[in-house]
Amino acid sequence: MTVDAESAGAAAPGRRGLRDKVLNLVFVRGRVVDVRQAARRMRLVRVTDVPGLDWTPGQHVRVNVSDPFTARAWLRGMADVLRSYSVWNYDAATGVLELCVMDHDGDGPGARWARTVRPGQEVAFTKPQGRFTVRDDAPYHLFAGEETASVAFGAMLRALPAGADVHGVVEVAGPEDRLRLPLGEKLTWRYRGDAPAASSSSLVAAVRALRLPDGPPGVAYVAGEARTVHAVRAHLVRERGWPRRSVLVKPFWTPGKRGMD
């Protein structure tokens, strides 16, 4: 949640104290120290004063992007209050958390927060969560996703043991949409041009074209737009014969669904 000086000053001291107590029960709180472009529509948000988190690469946090104390929030639920963002990195020694935030089209609460967050603002978020993490014992690892998936993929790739067998493809609109942070050299970048990322048949085709090792399947990590990740999973299960338990999916967003815009 972002708090500016004007709104903080307008609230009565007793009310501010109650709000702080409630926020501290639900959220971890930190302060933004840097915001920079990580791709054409992706921003890296660095948050400090965040000690003691238990984070596994691939996990996300749910950021409080609008005021949870308004009547609108109570009536409409948390779908307008929280947005999930993958953690790029967390340094427990310094208490610095790095998030990458995609600027989706539209004017939803997450999009507004992504466009307006600035250094000096306070941010409140849940502890890291999720089971979209690497399985060290897999014979090989397959990654497939688009812009929103590249952040989790980067953290997960860093967590793999040296020499791990990695395959995969990341689809983005164009070269300027590639993540400017180090993602390694083991994934193929594919450009879809003006085609939509939602229900992307080109990503499915790119995964279908991958030459994977013979023998037992590895583990697939498929993330991004909801309909696309389910189409990729269907290809792996129905066409390649992978067990469903070997395909981990993480839907980050989909058009028109409140809470995933």
UniProtKB/TrEMBL annotation:
Signal peptide annotation: none
One Pfam family matching this protein: FAD_binding_9
Gene3D superfamilies: Nucleotide-binding domain of ferredoxin-NADP reductase (FNR) module, Translation factors
Domain FAD-binding FR-type: 25-135
GO MF annotation terms: oxidoreductase activity
Entry protein name: FAD-binding FR-type domain-containing protein
UniProt organism field: Actinomadura rubrobrunea
